[in-house]
Structures are given as structure tokens and as C-alpha cells.
């Protein structure tokens, strides 16, 4: 009989590959209907995450009452492939339906059911396969943490290959068809195990540890982890060129950090006391966040050295890789340790599917609320820098809860807490575009600095020449130099060459008003 562990891991790798590929493709399809605004895209991701959470609980409980979890897993994978076909099929009708609507909320209500159904099915795969591999876990040390690592590694591959290569060379429709095929293959791989499946045993003896602490920690780590991803993306949006490849690189590196952390736990740390490992891991996440905040003002110096690289492709991708290594990669590796660690502590052998699904639900709810809260509220109210500090403190508080039984270990978290508090209280440094520091003899003073959910606006003045420039993130949108004003003034003058006595004038995008004033 084929090796159950190896083929199940291969199936779940392909499942993760297809899930992230679907997400990339859905964002491309639905951006035509919803637009590419922060609010619309964030809401689409939120619907996806809600579906994952619902599916993990529903199918986690369902598989605990059934004795053939491999059959349920096969049904889930095939159903994912079938239901995802509906999105490209209904896409033309969706465009017609939403073209008459003026609110992205109503558009989302139309699109949500198409996203929700396959997302619920995807959420069910993790607890169901964990339940199916329960007998193998007893014999070959296969744990849910190993599945989490494999699935995350598949997601990294899916986001990387689909975002950088498949769409570019095969197009949207063929790439989507290949992704659906991967979903079917993922299900067919485990067909040999369905025929010989005699049901899983109901082991006893190990009960849940920690009560509500572990689900609460899973919620807050999901909330803070994905919230930090939004905030770090905002920082890098100011420091790096605003290209699709740049932010795809950031996403892939973030996922690589998470998968590396889960692999480290699966191979090296599962023998140690999980509560002590949890406390140390969460505390050191705060330490690395603290270090990244201290490095933040010096990152533009790294970006300015990259133009000496000759390859045009590397000039876009290399800055993102270098800055991500300094800014968040160490912290994300530790974040990847936390969830498989929580699984080991919380998962009940009496109800493995339900307990795994419940923990996955709490983590997913946090992962859904975190980016929305960070993107819509925190940035606008306290700014990006202090928002990063606040989410770092949340990790520190969770870590401290695991040290309550040994209060001598609380000294280190208290020291880190005081340092984080000092960073929050002091005036946060302004996150400025690297091009402001490009010329050595140039002396700029900041006249205006404000962060908005859609971007950071900065107005600077060269103290040597008096020339002013207005930046939105990393891009100069207008300046007082002749070359900067010439282009936008011509936009207002050119139409008048064709109609010298207009009665009405339409200006699309007021901006700073230069075109309108001409």
C-alpha cells in the first residue's frame, strides 16, 4: 500500500498551492468589478478568511462524528474545484450587475456568495486531514504542525509561481483551469486510502490544556500577525518602488518566514515544554519588532545603494528582499512557530477534528479582523509607527501569560515592555521616501506629513533652492520646479487649443489644483 504520510503531505501541499493561487486569481478577476481600492480588496480577503474559519469548525465537528475522514477530504478537494469554476463562469454577469451600482458594499454582497462557498470547503481540509492522519501520528510522529508547514509551503509556491510566471505566460483563463486541475489532483491522490479506510480509533487520555488561554492566544496572534503585514506593507510602500512585483515579493517572503517557523517547530522544538516555548517565542517576536523599529529610519540608506545593481529586474526585487530581511523576516519565522505549537497544546485526542477546527477558527477570526482594524483605524488614528509598537506589545502580553506559573521569567518581558512603551510615548519618526536623501548636499525640511488609509502624503522644501515637492508614498505627484509644473499645466492648456471658448470644463482628479488653475 502506498505511504499514507507522504501522499497525504503531497496532497496537502497541492491544496495550499491551489488555495493561494485562487486568491491571487480572484483578486485579479474581481478588481475589474470592485476596483483596486484598499477597502474593496481588504473586504474580499476578509470574506475569504471568514469562509476558512467557518469551514474549519463545521467540518472539524463533522469529521469527529464520522469514521471515514479520507472520504470527506476527497469530497472537499473535488468540491473546491467544482465551486471555484463558478467565478470565471459568472464573471461577465458580475461585471454587468455591478456596473450600475455605486457602492462597493453592494458589489461585495453580490460577489461574496461565490467566494464564501469554496472558502468554507478550503477551511475544512485542515481539521479533516488531521483527523484522517491520527493513527499515523501515533506511529510516525506526524502532527498537525507538520501539515501546517506543508500547507504553508504550498501556499508560498502557489503565490510565487502564479503571481510571477503563470499569469504572465499562460494568461488568466488557462492559469485558472490549471489551478482547478490541481484541486482535483489533490483529491485523487488519496483515493487508494478511501477503499482501505476502516475508520479512526477514538483515543483517550490527553485533555485540553490551558482552557481559553490557547484559543485567545491564537486569536491575538492572528490579529497582530496579519495586522503587522498590512503595516509593514505601508512602510515598504514608502521605501520601495510601487510595482506589483515588489509587493508580490513581500508577500512571498512573509509566507516563507511563516513556513520556515513551522518547519523549525516540527523538526526541532516539539520535544520541549510547549508552554515555555510559547512564552519565549512570543516575547522574542516583540524583541525583533523592537529592533525593526530602531532600524526603520536607516532603511532608506540601503535602498539608495541598490541602483548600482545593473540588472533592471533586480533593482525592483532586490530592495524588497533586503529590507524584508531586516524589517520582518526574523519576526515572521517566530510567528510560524506559534500556531503549530498551539495545536500541540490544545488539540484533544478525544475530538481532534473539532479542537483543531476550533483553534483554526479563532486564529482565522483574528487574521480577518487584524488587517481591517490596522488598515481602516490604526493608521489613521495613531500612525503606522505607533501601530507597529501597539501590535508588538500584544505579542508581549500574550507571551507573559505563559510565564505566570514561573514569575521569575517575567523580568525579561517587563524590560521589553518598558522599551516598547518608551518608543510609543516618544515622538515617532516620519517615514520619508528615500529619494529625499538621494543628494548629499540637499537639505530638506518637512512642511506637511500625514498618513491616510490609502497612502502617506509628504510635502518637503529644499532649503537651498526653495523648491517644494509633494509625495504620495514613494511617488512625486507635483512640485514647484518648472519641470514639475510644466506637465500638469499643459494638461489644462491643451484642450483649450481645440475649443478656445468652452462653457463647461471637466477636470478628473483635482489633486493639488495646478491643472485646474491653469
UniProtKB/TrEMBL annotation:
<protein>
    <recommendedName>
        <fullName>MFS transporter</fullName>
    </recommendedName>
</protein>
<feature type="transmembrane region" description="Helical">
    <location>
        <begin position="385"/>
        <end position="403"/>
    </location>
</feature>
<feature type="transmembrane region" description="Helical">
    <location>
        <begin position="147"/>
        <end position="167"/>
    </location>
</feature>
<feature type="transmembrane region" description="Helical">
    <location>
        <begin position="37"/>
        <end position="59"/>
    </location>
</feature>
<feature type="transmembrane region" description="Helical">
    <location>
        <begin position="358"/>
        <end position="379"/>
    </location>
</feature>
<dbReference type="InterPro" id="IPR029063">
    <property type="entry name" value="SAM-dependent_MTases_sf"/>
</dbReference>
<feature type="transmembrane region" description="Helical">
    <location>
        <begin position="212"/>
        <end position="232"/>
    </location>
</feature>
<feature type="transmembrane region" description="Helical">
    <location>
        <begin position="103"/>
        <end position="126"/>
    </location>
</feature>
<feature type="transmembrane region" description="Helical">
    <location>
        <begin position="277"/>
        <end position="296"/>
    </location>
</feature>
<feature type="transmembrane region" description="Helical">
    <location>
        <begin position="410"/>
        <end position="426"/>
    </location>
</feature>
<keyword id="KW-0812">Transmembrane</keyword>
<feature type="transmembrane region" description="Helical">
    <location>
        <begin position="244"/>
        <end position="265"/>
    </location>
</feature>
<feature type="transmembrane region" description="Helical">
    <location>
        <begin position="316"/>
        <end position="346"/>
    </location>
</feature>
<feature type="transmembrane region" description="Helical">
    <location>
        <begin position="71"/>
        <end position="91"/>
    </location>
</feature>
<keyword id="KW-1133">Transmembrane helix</keyword>
<keyword id="KW-0472">Membrane</keyword>
<dbReference type="InterPro" id="IPR036259">
    <property type="entry name" value="MFS_trans_sf"/>
</dbReference>
<feature type="transmembrane region" description="Helical">
    <location>
        <begin position="173"/>
        <end position="191"/>
    </location>
</feature>
Amino acid at each position: 500500500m502506498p505511504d499514507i504520510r507522504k501522499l497525504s503531505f503531497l496532497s496537502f501541499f497541492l491544496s495550499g498551492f491551489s488555495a493561494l493561487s485562487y486568491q491571487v486569481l480572484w483578486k485579479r478577476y474581481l478588481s475589474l468589478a470592485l476596483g483596486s481600492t484598499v477597502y474593496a480588496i481588504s473586504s474580499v480577503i476578509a470574506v475569504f478568511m471568514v469562509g476558512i474559519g467557518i469551514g474549519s469548525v463545521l467540518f472539524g465537528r463533522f469529521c469527529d462524528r464520522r469514521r471515514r475522514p479520507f472520504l470527506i477530504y476527497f469530497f472537499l478537494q473535488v468540491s473546491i474545484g467544482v465551486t471555484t469554476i463558478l467565478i470565471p463562469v459568472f464573471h461577465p454577469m458580475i461585471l454587468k450587475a455591478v456596473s450600475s451600482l455605486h457602492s462597493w458594499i453592494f458589489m461585495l454582497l453580490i460577489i461574496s456568495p461565490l467566494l464564501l462557498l469554496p472558502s468554507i470547503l478550503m477551511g475544512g481540509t485542515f481539521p479533516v486531514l488531521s483527523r484522517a492522519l491520527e493513527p499515523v501520528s501515533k506511529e510516525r510522529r506526524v502532527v498537525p504542525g507538520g501539515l501546517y508547514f506543508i500547507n504553508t509551503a504550498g501556499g508560498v509556491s502557489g503565490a510565487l509561481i502564479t503571481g510571477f510566471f503563470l499569469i504572465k505566460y499562460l494568461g488568466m483563463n488557462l492559469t485558472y483551469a490549471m489551478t482547478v486541475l490541481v484541486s482535483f489532483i489533490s483529491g485523487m491522490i488519496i483515493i487508494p486510502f478511501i477503499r482501505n479506510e476502516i475508520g479512526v480509533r477514538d483515543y483517550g487520555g490527553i485533555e485540553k490544556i490551558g482552557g481559553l488561554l490557547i484559543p485567545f492566544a491564537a486569536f491575538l496572534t492572528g490579529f497582530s500577525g496579519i495586522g503587522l503585514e498590512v503595516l509593514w506593507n505601508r512602510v515598504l510602500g514608502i521605501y520601495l518602488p510601487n510595482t506589483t512585483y515588489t509587493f508580490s515579493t513581500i508577500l512571498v517572503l512573509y509566507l516563507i518566514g511563516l513556513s520556515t517557523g513551522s518547519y523549525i517547530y516540527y523538526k526541532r522544538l516539539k520535544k520541549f515544554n510547549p508552554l515555555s516555548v510559547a512564552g519565549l517565542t512570543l516575547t522574542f517576536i516583540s524583541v525583533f519588532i523592537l529592533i525593526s523599529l530602531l532600524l526603520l529610519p536607516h532603511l532608506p540608506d540601503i535602498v539608495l545603494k541598490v541602483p548600482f545593481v545593473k540588472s533592471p529586474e533586480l533593482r525592483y526585487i532586490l530592495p524588497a528582499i533586503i529590507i524584508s530581511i531586516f524589517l520582518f523576516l526574523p519576526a515572521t519565522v517566530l510567528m510560524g512557530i506559534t500556531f503549530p505549537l498551539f495545536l500541540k497544546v490544545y488539540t484533544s485526542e478525544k475530538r481532534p477534528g473539532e479542537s483543531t477546527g476550533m483553534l483554526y477558527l479563532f486564529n482565522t477570526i483574528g487574521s480577518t479582523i487584524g488587517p481591517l482594524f490596522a488598515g481602516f483605524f490604526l493608521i489613521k488614528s495613531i500612525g503606522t509607527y505607533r501601530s507597529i509598537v501597539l501590535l508588538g506589545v500584544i505579542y508581549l502580553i500574550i507571551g507573559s501569560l505563559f510565564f505566570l506559573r514561573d514569575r521569575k521569567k517575567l523580568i525579561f518581558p517587563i524590560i521589553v515592555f518598558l522599551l516598547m512603551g518608551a518608543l510609543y510615548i516618544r515622538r515617532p519618526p516620519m517615514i520619508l521616501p528615500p529619494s529625499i536623501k538621494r543628494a548629499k548636499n540637499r537639505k530638506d525640511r518637512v512642511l506637511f506629513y500625514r498618513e491616510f488609509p490609502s497612502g502617506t502624503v509628504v510635502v518637503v522644501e529644499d532649503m537651498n533652492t526653495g523648491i517644494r515637492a509633494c509625495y504620495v508614498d514613494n511617488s512625486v505627484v507635483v512640485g514647484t520646479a518648472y519641470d514639475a509644473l510644466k506637465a500638469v499645466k499643459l494638461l489644462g492648456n491643451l484642450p483649450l487649443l481645440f475649443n478656445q471658448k468652452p462653457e463647461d470644463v471637466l477636470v478628473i482628479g483635482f489633486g493639488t489644483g495646478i491643472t485646474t488653475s491653469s
